[in-house]
Write a structure and sequence with these properties.
122 residues, mainly beta, Jelly Rolls, 5-stranded antiparallel sheet, globular, RmlC-like_jellyroll, metal-binding, Cupin_2
Length: 122
């Protein structure tokens, strides 16, 4: 494995599942590219799997942009005042200042990629 901040190739099995703050009910993620795993300075790239009824609290980012890419399952995505069902192949772009949340309302796991940049809202 490369030193943090250097180019690297990682296998998904190398990163443990974790439940980040404000994520509940089996909302698990693997921080594949993150300051703690690769030393990235501008990018957070995660794969997440939410068990049925799992969710992340409604929240907003001041400067961060996010992209969610649903790989499997279905859930309910709240973007601003709108709630929509999201499924495999849906891609959601969230600019700064938009309140949002996602929860698994389906019968099986909801799996998606989340990309966030920059790393903090400072």
């Amino acid at each position: 494995m490369a030193e943090k901040g250097e180019a690297c190739i990682r296998n998904i099995a190398e990163e443990p599942w974790q439940q980040f703050p404000a994520h509940y009910g089996g909302a698990l993620s693997k921080a594949l590219v993150h300051p703690d795993t690769t030393g990235s300075k501008q990018l957070d790239y995660r794969i997440s799997t939410y068990q049925p009824m799992a969710y992340v609290e409604r929240h907003v980012h001041k400067v961060q942009e996010q992209v969610y890419h649903v790989l499997d399952g279905e859930g309910l995505m709240e973007v601003g005042d709108e709630k929509r069902v999201v499924r495999k192949h849906d891609v959601i772009f969230l600019p700064p200042g938009v309140w949002h949340s996602i929860q698994n309302t389906g019968l099986g796991d909801l799996t998606f990629i989340v990309v966030t940049t920059p790393l903090t809202d400072d």
